[in-house]
Amino acid sequence: MNEFERLRAIVARLRGANGCPWDREQTNASLVPPLLEEAYEIASAVYAQDDANLREELGDLLLLIAMHAQIASEGNRFSIEDVAREITEKLIRRHPHVFGESTVRGSEAVIKQWEAIKQEEKKGH
Fold it and tell me: What's the whole-model pTM score?
């Protein structure tokens, strides 16, 4: 079992019948304030160039992501695998200069291409 699978199993156990009462009470909405707080703490660690704190804060954010996905999974809405698959597919689609045939080079051109792809995707929704 890799570390991500281990985290997922721990979160599922915490939210399970014999898990932690606090973790079981959480909802996607109740986890928004700590999610925002962790984002600010990550920014603070980045600006302070404090790698040990950054690693810890990224872990806290990863826990919240795992919790959000676990809650959604319990309601048969989506799974963490769905989240990972969606972002993976998006990254591949939006980086045709890396994964496809595009010959775009340079940050500015890449950003323009990303935005154009994003706009096309939005038309489909």
Answer: 0.90
